[in-house]
């Protein structure tokens, strides 16, 4: 038996349904996994519990997975340490002396959002805390500030390979049925798929275009006008603004300098870039033909070393190195004591616990879905691939359906990580299977997989970006000091506009399996929206 057939649909369908109803992704994922364990155990609940615990434990009994787990935890520790130094405030004080207009303060907010890419939570709170005094001085609507914070949080985190978001995606992709047939590493797959992530890239671009052109529309235009007319930076009819948030909480914050905020980020980037090829070289040392790092470097090109790297190992080494160097740096700079530094790291790691739980369950439900009955799974990926391929389902529709469904799930649940866990193991084998059935070559096969998975990523990020129950949306309101309902109301038309343009892009991209065609359709739609929406909406 290769699969449990249609019974394999129960875990993902149950997970999605419960996520809609409960808005709790953890519980939904757990019950989805348990339902799969029940099916595998033949309806025996005791055996199902035993199977479930074994599957969860097994998901962490893997070198790749445990390194990813530790990377995410230590990244949280780095963010916790960074948040306690006062460096964000120091950067804000420096920026305040340079920025004297509405446009320049908004552009700096956008730039800082791109710079702080390692964590979406820290992005929203840190950039908001830094820039809010500056934007307030320049009479910028709090709603506009919140929109930029939100649009440079999740959309940026999903584009940069040195983030918990991307390493999670790579992990799920690596474990999905059909990935091995693509002939690329998970790191190479991600890097080459970045241009296909239409929604995230368009959202970042949209912020820049609106800031530079001033073509605001809808509730956002009205909030901006209200701020200019009344001098009040938020509309109290939407409710009270969140209290002032101080993420630094350090008596020594006055000692910090702007470089103190940039230092750990630069160290992380540099060390990651170094370790990506180094880990490949180290892995190629066999003690016989290749006996040293120099010999390993001579045996392959730098490009091959990057493409074949073990991303989990490289990023794990990079974050440990960064954490140690930053710990020493901040201690020497006397921005905190050894005791407060340890507390900051601990608090940061604790903040990652929900994400780590979701990540672990993502691996587990992926295993349940992918694995054959002989390996304790349902074989759903193989079943769906056979059904879809055998039914002649058009591959052109996979990206647009994947985007729409992922957007619906993520918007309804307020989380993207849970959506990644549900959708990628389903979409990957379908896209690969359909492409192989059509006899597509290696390049077209890879394009089909990349555009389909990127559609899942884009739809998932849309929900995290736009949903009123998303924690990132809530933290963006908090960081900006904007009433949450005002932020949701003003941002929604912008997020939906980007989503519709992206949807059209995936329609044409799915038909052609060409990223240039996808972008051409997306940008034409976006340009039309920027021309007509301010005219129509602002009447």
UniProtKB/TrEMBL annotation:
Keyword list, A-Z: Cell membrane, Membrane, Transmembrane, Transmembrane helix
Chain ranges of the Na+/H+ antiporter NhaC-like C-terminal domain: 156-511
Annotated TM spans: 29-52, 64-83, 107-131, 152-173, 193-213, 262-283, 311-330, 351-369, 381-405, 417-437, 494-511, 517-537
Subcellular location: Cell membrane
Stored InterPro entries: Na/H_Antiport_NhaC-like_C
Record flagged with keyword Transferase: no
Keyword Cell membrane belongs to the record: yes
Topology relative to the membrane: Multi-pass membrane protein
Domain of life: Bacteria
Xref: PANTHER family: NA+/H+ ANTIPORTER-RELATED (PTHR43478), NA+_H+ ANTIPORTER NHAC-LIKE C-TERMINAL DOMAIN-CONTAINING PROTEIN (PTHR43478:SF1)
Name this polypeptide is given: Na+/H+ antiporter NhaC family protein
């Amino acid at each position: 038996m290769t699969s449990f057939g249609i019974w394999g649909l129960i875990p993902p369908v149950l997970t999605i349904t419960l996520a809609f109803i409960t808005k709790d992704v953890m519980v939904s994922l757990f019950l989805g996994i348990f339902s799969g364990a029940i099916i595998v155990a033949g309806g025996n609940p005791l055996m199902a519990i035993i199977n479930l615990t074994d599957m969860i434990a097994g998901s962490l009994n893997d070198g790749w997975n445990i390194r990813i787990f530790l990377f995410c935890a230590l990244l949280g520790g780095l963010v916790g340490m960074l948040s306690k130094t006062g460096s964000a405030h120091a950067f804000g004080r420096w920026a305040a002396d340079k920025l004297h207009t509405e446009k320049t303060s908004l552009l700096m907010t956008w730039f800082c959002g791109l710079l702080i890419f390692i964590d979406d939570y820290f992005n929203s709170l840190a950039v908001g805390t830094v820039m809010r005094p500056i934007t307030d001085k320049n009479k910028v609507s709090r709603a506009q500030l919140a929109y930029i914070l939100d649009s440079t949080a999740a959309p940026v985190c999903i584009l940069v390979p040195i983030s918990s978001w991307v390493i999670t995606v790579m992990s799920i992709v690596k474990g999905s049925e059909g990935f091995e047939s693509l002939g690329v590493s998970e790191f190479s797959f991600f890097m080459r798929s970045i241009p296909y992530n239409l929604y995230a890239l368009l959202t970042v671009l949209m912020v820049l275009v609106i800031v530079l052109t001033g073509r605001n529309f809808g509730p956002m235009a009205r909030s901006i006008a209200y701020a200019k007319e009344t001098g009040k930076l938020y509309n109290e009819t939407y409710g009270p603004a969140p209290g002032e948030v101080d993420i630094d909480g350090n008596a020594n914050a006055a000692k910090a300098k702007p470089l103190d905020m940039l230092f750990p980020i630069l160290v992380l980037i540099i060390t990651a870039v170094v370790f990506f090829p180094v880990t490949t070289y180290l892995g190629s040392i066999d003690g016989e033909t290749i006996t040293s790092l120099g010999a390993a470097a001579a045996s392959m090109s730098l490009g091959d070393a990057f493409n074949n790297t073990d991303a989990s190992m490289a990023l794990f080494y990079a974050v440990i190195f960064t954490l140690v160097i930053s710990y020493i740096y901040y201690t020497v700079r006397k921005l905190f004591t050894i005791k407060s530094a340890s507390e900051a790291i601990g608090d940061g790691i604790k903040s990652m616990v929900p994400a780590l739980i979701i990540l672990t369950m993502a691996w587990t439900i992926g295993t349940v879905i992918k694995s054959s009955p002989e390996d304790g799974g349902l074989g759903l990926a193989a079943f769906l691939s056979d059904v879809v391929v055998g039914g002649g389902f058009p591959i052109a529709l996979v990206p647009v359906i994947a985007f729409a469904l992922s957007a619906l799930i993520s918007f309804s649940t307020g989380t993207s990580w849970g959506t990644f866990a549900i959708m990628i193991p389903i979409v990957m084998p379908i896209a690969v299977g359909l492409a192989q059935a059509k006899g597509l070559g290696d390049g077209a096969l890879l394009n089909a997989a990349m555009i389909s998975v990127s559609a899942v990523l884009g739809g998932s990020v849309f929900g995290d970006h736009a949903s009123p129950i998303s924690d990132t949306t809530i933290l963006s309101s908090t960081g900006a000091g904007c009433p949450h309902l005002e932020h949701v109301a003003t941002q929604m038309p912008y997020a939906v506009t980007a989503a519709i343009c992206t949807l059209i892009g995936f329609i044409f991209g799915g038909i052609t399996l060409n990223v240039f065609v996808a972008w051409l359709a997306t940008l034409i739609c976006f340009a039309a929206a920027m021309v007509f929406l301010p005219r129509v909406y602002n009447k």
